[in-house]
Amino acid sequence: MTKRLDTLINSLPDIEIITEPTQVAKLSQDYHTFSPVLVPKLAGKVGDIVVRPANEQEVIKVAAACVQCKIPVTVRGAGTGNYGQCVPLHGGVILDMSKMQEIPWVKPGVARVEAGVKLAAIDKKARDIGWEIRMAPSTYRTATIGGFIAGGSGGIGSIQYGLLGDRGNILALRVVTLEDQPRVIELRGDDVQKVTHAWGINGIITEAEIPLGPAYPWAEVIITFNDFMAAAKFGQALGNADGMVKKLIAVFASSVSQYFHPLQQYIPEGTHSVLLMLAETTLELLPGLVQQYGGQITYEKLAHEKSVHLGEFTWNHTTLHARSVDTSITYLQSMFPADGNLEILEHLYHYFGDEVMMHLEFFRVNGRVIPGALQLVRYTTEERLNEIIRYHEAKGVSIANPHTYIIEDGGRKVIDPEQLTFKEMVDPYGLMNPGKSKVLEFKISS
């Protein structure tokens, strides 16, 4: 491998390359440390070098060099993923896309951006003409669009627009292949699914075309409840109120709310909390619904007011806040079946108690609003964690397991055959992020 790496480095004289071991190790990691199961499995997994292309032409040169030298390639955005998606299992090149930050154009309803652009930067540019990105993870300020498309699934905004992989939430992708003569392929419409949420095994995303949504002035609100199920049913009712424009409905059991230290003055001890982002025009309708479910509004901030950003306490930032206090805490990712009375949710809330602390995120799936969950788990053993997962699944709850780096064992369960066919075409030597799929067995030269 050393000789091949030297050959590769010498063939890329004008492209930034990092060889310093500490830096390479740092850029080989993501937030898989949220999982006590993944930490030992991914320990010591690092790349050999980091390459930072500045544009698509440099990506093509790197791709050609890696194919010629038969060196694995793991593409990296900002490293904000949680399953080891960008952790290289077989060393090789870490392809850091963070220098590719151009935004070729933004038009009403649509934007064209390079893969390394941060989501917040896209939002800022789009808001200049009255639009905004449709959805973003809680890592909105640091995550890149390419990383979100390759490894993400939804986030703040999914209550309105569904999940990232839903038809229409990605319009086009431009990818570079790892063939003997690398090509640039433009995928449009449904063809983008050949690359989305594939953890970088199916090509190097260099550009994305994404739809935008109208940019509302978003108010942020905290509501507290004495009863958890009242809070959950309020969240469901607000989600189903189609005339009320919302961006975020997050519900937390009191055992979770205790970790939100900057918000403690708004969340009395022992109460369950709901964090919202709503269009300011919707605020007038909120008190009536809150009263109906026995809640109390304790915090309200208009869009122009500067204060803490509630979105950074939701989705997987919730786990981050909890782990900053107790590193033994881990989490699950769940999707509850459509259930108007939330009976399964209520059963699981009581059945596990504080061992599995309830954190709900409402989002739209196939036209219906349902609760997903990123429950906090007081971890004891891997065996017990698997028991918890199996119990949820037996009750009809779909678990996207965040304690595996294998694509099929996570949320998808299987890889789309169309993705496999595309993989065979664009990566004939199996150099793209090898080891992340059970059905893809590649021989990596040593």
Gyration radius from CA atoms, angstroms: 22 Å
Please state the oligomeric state of the protein chains shown. single chain
Major beta-sheet overview: 8 strands, antiparallel
State the total count of DSSP E strands. 21
Q: Which structural class do the helices and strands define?
A: alpha+beta
Summarize the amount of helix as a percent range: 25-40%
- What number is the mean pLDDT? 95
Distance between the termini: 6 Å
What is the number of helical segments per DSSP (H or I, 4+ residues)? Answer: 14
Portion of residues in beta strands equals: 15-25%
Poorly predicted segments? 442-446
Give the overall form. globular
Strand line-up of the largest beta sheet: 14-11-13-12-18-19-16-21
Characterise this structure.
It contains 14 helices and 21 strands. With about 450 residues, the protein is an alpha+beta fold. The strands form four sheets. The chain has an eight-stranded antiparallel beta sheet with strand order 14-11-13-12-18-19-16-21. Helix 1 (about 1-10) runs antiparallel to helix 4. It starts with a helix and ends in a 20-residue tail after the last helix. The model is unreliable at about 440-445 (pLDDT under 50).
